[in-house]
Amino acid sequence: MLYCKLMSDQTDRLTNLVMPYGLSDEEVKVYLYLLTHGYVTALELSRQLHLGRTKVYRLLDLLKNKELVEIKLDERGMKFGATHPRKLEQLVGQKQAQVTALSQALPSLVSELTALLPHKDQSSKVLYYEGLSGLEQVSFNTTRAEKLLRVFEMSHMSEFLSNQFAEDIRHRFVANQILTRDITNQKEFGEYTQVYEMVEKYSEYRHLDPKKLKIGFEVLIYNDVYATYTYDSEEIFCVEIYNSQLAEMQKQLFDYVWEQSQVMKYTSRGGAAKID
Question: Fewest 10 Å CB contacts: which of 92, 234, 251, 263?
Fold first, then answer.
């Protein structure tokens, strides 16, 4: 009984590990069974995995297309077996090639799709977002900043969003050569990133005494956008205002405060900093 439970736990763990490589839960079950038991018939798969014969054949076809299943014929007819797990490396390579192709085609696609928008004045608008997904969307939108992103910062992005997401945003800042200027009430902080190039080339911090201005909302200013949000409460609330005049005024206010703030000096490649 204990052995069965251990095997079940291992199967569940392996299923969760393999699925991100583009396989469904049922595809993984078929693949793991074949990997464990060698060549078997579709009938055995159907019986052992409690799946209909039609579904088994469909799953085997999907796995064959991914080159994770191979077929052999013997006196009992057609049997199916799993290919070596190294084939997963090939799947990763294919996905990387697909992502590269999509990234290269994206600017042209966005341009063509943008041309389909109704030709009316959309220069001013207000967008509302809620929850963590809203925070992610507002944060992702900043990667469209042209040259400079101004921030009144409460804390680093990875304090309220996943580190993986935050690091992806920072990589995009570097790729798009976006300089970020952050004004914070903190006098010092520790390392927060492994995107060293951003720290070295595309990030500047200054400290503002909270007695002069307490930063209670995160504020992002770029292009013709003024965005603000708070995550330090039960209700996460975000607003983006698209208006060139408002954005220009907020940029001037930010720059004025920036000049009144103390320079912070980085003390490590990972972004630790303190007042200079």
Answer: 234
Summarize pLDDT for 17-51 with one digit per residue, the tens.
888 888 888 999 999 999 889 899 999 999 999 98
Instruction: Give the list of residues 6+ apart from residue 275 with CB closer than 8 angstroms, or none.
Output: 187, 188, 207, 262, 263, 264, 265
pLDDT of 112-128, one tens digit each?
887 887 765 556 889 98
Write the single-letter amino acid at 105. A
Q: Considering all CA atoms of the chain, what is the largest pairwise distance in Å, rounded to the nearest integer? A: 86
Task: Give the side-chain half-sphere CA count within 13 A for 117.
Answer: 11
Q: What is the pLDDT of residue 97?
A: 86
* 102 within domain boundaries: no
Average pLDDT over residues 138-147: 93
- Domain with 16, as residue range(s), is 12-82
In a domain, 105, yes or no: no
Q: How far is CA 23 from CA 26, 66, 127, 208, in A?
A: 8, 9, 36, 50
Same domain membership, residue 223 and residue 146: yes
Q: Looking at the structure, tell me whether residues 138 and 226 fall in a common domain.
A: yes
